UniProtKB/TrEMBL annotation:
Coiled coil: none annotated. Pfam families: AAA_31. Signal peptide: none annotated. Residues 1-33 are annotated as: Disordered. This is Putative SOJ/para-related protein [Mycobacterium tuberculosis H37Rv]. Transmembrane segments: none annotated. Residues 42-215 form the AAA domain.
Length: 303
């Protein structure tokens, strides 16, 4: 089977053969402004309008890996379903306050924060957030509600990771507007990239209007099965159509994903499984990228 080679290319490339027809939608510039290398707080949005791509698992597991590295971590749940909140051991239906009240300016952000068993802090969500989305639509500056809230937490955290909902509504726009970078989890299956073009247009719009400094880090392959050539073909198609970097390492398919969500913990709770190792490697690469400017590893496919 063709192998993957870790490198720092902009996107996976075929070593021979021709590219297929490219989609007319291209990835927006990786950098919406000069890349900032510093020890200041970093805000990472994890977003994809398609559900079922291990987005919430990615947020929880990256957060746990950052915490293991000694970072002060805040996770933000922007999904009205509250999946991140539930997966980290908090019942969305029993929250006294949540991100809903924070976005509407009814409470200060610190009043809604809760802790997790893995040393992180969570700004939780529940179904009330759907109502906040409707109410924000009637307000001026609605895309900046989360950014205003995070600004009030300056100095309390080193890394903020935002779990955006599987949509392109005002909540996702809030996540992208508040973020320094965005990562796109992508399941390695046929048709998994449908809608990516529309999402990339949204990222480009945010870069133009509400957050010129937003950077697109690239696609993160999830539920990856190295035994199949089909997986490789899907990722090559994404790279060809959208000219988007594909980050390494890919996150392998593992039963630990389901077990972690059911038990109210991240996949990192089982330290030796392959998924935990991949997330730990990715978190380490991100921290190194942020603090020293070292390029993020990407994959090149040998045919």
């Amino acid at each position: 089977m063709p192998g993957w080679q870790c490198g720092h290319a902009a996107a996976p490339k075929r070593t021979k053969g021709t590219k297929g027809d490219r989609d007319e939608v291209r990835a927006p510039p990786a950098c919406g402004g000069e890349r900032r290398v510093s020890t200041d707080v970093r805000v990472l949005a994890v977003a994809n309008q398609k559900g079922g791509v291990a987005k919430t698992t990615t947020v929880a597991s990256l957060g746990a890996a950052f915490s293991d590295e000694g970072e002060r971590v805040l996770l933000v749940d922007l999904d009205p379903q509250g999946c991140l909140t539930f997966s980290l051991g908090h019942d969305p239906d029993k929250l006294p306050v949540s991100v809903h009240e924070v976005l509407l300016g009814e409470v200060e952000p610190n009043a809604a924060l809760v802790s997790t068993d893995e040393g992180m802090t969570l700004l939780p969500a529940n179904i009330d957030l759907a109502g906040a989305e409707a109410m924000l639509l009637m307000r001026a500056g609605r895309e900046y509600a989360l950014k205003r809230a995070l600004d009030k937490l300056t100095g309390q955290f080193d890394v903020v990771v935002i779990d955006c909902p599987p949509s392109l509504g005002v909540l996702t726009l809030n996540g992208l507007t508040a973020a320094d970078e965005v990562m796109v989890p992508l399941q390695c299956e046929t048709l998994a990239h449908r809608g990516v073009g529309q999402f990339l247009r949204t990222v480009a719009d945010v870069q133009q209007i509400t957050n010129p400094k937003l950077r697109l880090l690239g696609a993160l392959p999830t539920l990856y099965d190295p035994r199949t050539t089909h997986t490789r073909d899907v990722l090559l198609d994404v790279a060809d159509r959208y000219d988007m970097p594909v980050l390494a390492p890919p996150i392998p398919r593992t039963v630990r994903f389901a077990e972690a969500s059911a038990s109210g913990s991240s996949v990192m709770a089982a330290r030796k499984n392959k998924g935990a190792t991949a997330y730990r490697d990715l978190a380490h690469a991100l921290l190194r990228h942020w603090k020293s400017g070292k390029p993020l590893p990407t994959f090149t496919v040998e045919l």
